[in-house]
Amino acid sequence: MPTGLERKLEKIRRLLDALVAESVRETPIVVEGENDREALRRLGVGGDIILAKDSGKSFQDALSEVEKRGKAEVILLLDFDRRGREWTKRLAQSLEGMRITPNMGFWKELMGLVGRDLKDIEGLASYVRTLQRKLGKNILGDEE
């Protein structure tokens, strides 16, 4: 019988697999900064990762970056803290106005799984590794 931690790790693995599949389909992913992008890369997520708040970018700059991609959908994966939640909501509303579908499913599911333990995407790779160590499992298939 799997423990609560094992179930959580398995749900995170499935979510990451689905995120990788979306990135392979060239669905852009919006994160806050470079450290968030690097964490996703360490978790195996490739593809187009747009930085929303990098080096003094304004909110409008972030929207322009998304619009330039010319995609009908974009995945929002900003932090889980108050500011991240506010940016996610603002981006979603603005993108809808631009007729771009904001996919917040990954963000909502991740926040439900790790929101109490984690405030940002940047810490996700370390969080997964910590769970793996506790359980003696390696879902990422890499060497630590």
Q: Which fold name is given in CATH as the topology? A: Dna Topoisomerase Vi A Subunit, Chain: A, domain 2
Class by alpha and beta content: alpha/beta
The tally of helices reads 6
Overall, the morphology is elongated
Strand element count: 4
Describe the oligomeric state of these chains in a short phrase.
Answer: single chain
- SSE series: HEHEHEHEHH
> Which regions have little confidence, pLDDT < 50, spanning 5+ residues?
none
- Side by side, the strands of the main sheet go 2-1-3-4
Beta content: 5-15%
Over all CA atoms, what is the radius of gyration?
15 Å
CATH class category label = Alpha Beta
Largest β sheet strand count, sense and barrel closure: 4 strands, parallel
Q: For the terminal residues, how far apart are their CA atoms?
A: 27 Å
What does this structure look like?
This protein has six helices and four strands, in the order αβαβαβαβαα. It is α/β, with parallel strands linked by helices. The protein has one domain: 3-Layer(aba) Sandwich (Dna Topoisomerase Vi A Subunit, Chain: A, domain 2). α1 runs antiparallel to α5. The mean pLDDT is 91.
